[in-house]
Amino acid sequence: MDPYTIFADIIAGRAPASKVYEDDDVVAFMDIRPMTPGHLLVVPRVAAKCLAELDPVVGGKLFQVGQRLAGALRESEVGCDGVNFFLADGVTAGQEVFHVHLHVIPRTPGDGFGLRGRPTSPHRADLDYLAGSIRGALARTEAAEGR
Ligand code: AMP
């Protein structure tokens, strides 16, 4: 996959962006196709294509900055009274730009934004079965990483 993304150019200052925040690890700027007014992207400076490539410390930083920006959005002229975080990891999840980023989406009543999909009502046994499978995968991954 081509490692180039427009976000690399924005981070390097070669492409325009309406920035709201930057530090040594992350840059945050306005999404050019906002789902709602004030829609922000928080982007790590390091060009990780997906969550599996992202240093978890930097991943935590994405959330920390997103949390601060959510507060700022509520206090700004955006005037939202709710915020959604969204992160698409992989094509199937809707990822279009292959440089990890956290969407911070301000919400107001009736803005039309929402997750599509229908919740299901599985039996507890099915939830327990998958929980066991995920616990096993987590343990194997962490053992392989020496954690
Ligand atoms: P995703 O589907 O999670 O990969 O979302 C990519 C997001 O990047 C979309 O919401 C786009 O509108 C946004 N985007 C793409 N190019 C730019 C750009 N040059 N400046 C700001 N946002 C962008």
TrEMBL record:
Domain of life per record: Bacteria
PROSITE patterns, A to Z: HIT_1, HIT_2
Positions of transmembrane segments: none
Keywords assigned: Methyltransferase, Transferase
Record bears the keyword Methyltransferase: yes
HIT domain sequence ranges: 6-114
GO molecular function annotation: methyltransferase activity
Motif segment (Histidine triad motif): 99-103
Any Gene Ontology biological process: methylation
Keyword Methyltransferase carried by entry: yes
InterPro entries reported for this sequence: Histidine_triad_CS (IPR019808), Histidine_triad_HIT (IPR001310), HIT-like (IPR011146), HIT-like_sf (IPR036265)
Pfam (any one): HIT
Protein EC: 2.1.1.-
Protein name (record): HIT family protein
Organism: Nocardia xishanensis
